[in-house]
Design a protein that fits this description.
This protein has 268 residues and is an all-alpha fold. It folds into two domains: 155 residues, ABC transporter type 1, transmembrane domain (ABC transporter transmembrane region fold); 73 residues. Helices cover 85% and strands 0% of the residues. Helix 4 packs antiparallel against helix 5, helix 7 runs antiparallel to helix 8 and helix 7 packs antiparallel against helix 9.
Length: 268
């Protein structure tokens, strides 16, 4: 058991060279333009997106209102042994949590629809673009890497749109609402609680700066491995004709090891 727990720490930590760091930093400068392009697709379904945001607002408000009513019922009814007015609070809580569950379901249902339609349009445009590019483009790139762009990379976009958009808005609204309620009850305790926020921000920045580059390396290694596998499978006759099986196995193990290490350290 102890051996299995300590096994991940036997991997060598990945070190980025100065050239790779500069290259990755230059790619990171295109984040704003990438977000603008994604928004151009989302803007086609602006109506549904507005409804999703309204559902996020409703779920955040109802999620905060439930605990407030629970606390009110304990302070004003249960502790005072006054159960006469407790029935209407219970009914109100039932409707609140039913509305909360319904808003969560609807926001996820509509956001998944928006995400899948967006990714379908992006995948279609990318596939059509492949048929318009010159042959020199395909000669310089592995087929598996291009396949990874159409399948794996766009699947990551889909999962991001499915969860991150809702989580960002929901987290902001929940944070604002929670802080407001905390300030209403006790400003001193609220300030003491929020004193840990700067430490959390510094820690998050350190983690994202460390793992962001490794995620990009992981995607690049995944594309290289997919390309290698695709070319190996399609070129089996040539490999066997020239007895290159051992070399191809060594190359596969090397690329697979790179992907394993980059994936491991990206999640640490």
């Amino acid at each position: 058991m102890l051996k299995e727990l300590t096994k991940p720490f036997q991997y060598k930590h990945l070190q980025l060279s100065k050239e790779k760091k500069k290259k990755e930093a230059s790619r990171a400068d295109n984040v704003s333009s990438t977000l603008k392009r994604i928004w151009s697709y989302l803007a086609l379904m602006k109506g549904k997106l507005v409804v999703v945001l309204l559902m996020v607002l409703a779920s955040s408000v109802l999620g905060l209102l439930g605990p407030v009513l629970v606390g009110y019922s304990i302070d004003h009814y249960i502790l005072k042994n006054n159960l006469s007015g407790l029935s209407w609070l219970i009914v109100a809580l039932v409707f609140i949590y039913l509305g909360y569950s319904a808003s969560l379901f609807l926001q996820n249902f509509w956001m998944i629809d928006i995400a899948q339609n967006t990714v379908t349009k992006m995948r279609t445009e990318l596939f059509n673009m492949f048929h318009k590019l010159p042959m020199s483009f395909f000669e310089k790139r592995q087929h598996g890497e291009l396949m990874s762009r159409v399948t794996n990379d766009l699947e990551n976009v889909s999962s991001t749109l499915n969860t991150s958009v809702i989580q960002v808005f929901s987290s902001i609204l929940t944070l604002v609402g929670t802080v407001s309620v905390m300030l209403w009850y006790s400003p001193i305790l609220t300030l003491l609680t929020l004193s840990i926020v700067p430490v959390l921000i510094i820690g998050i920045k350190w983690i994202t700066h460390r793992t962001g580059q490794l995620y990009k390396i992981q995607q690049r290694n995944l594309g290289e491995l997919n390309g290698f596998i695709e070319e190996t499978v399609s070129g089996q006759r040539i490999i066997k004709t020239f007895s290159q099986e051992d070399k191809m196995i060594r190359d596969f193990l090397n690329k697979n090891e790179k992907l394993k290490n980059s994936g491991f350290w990206a999640f640490i």
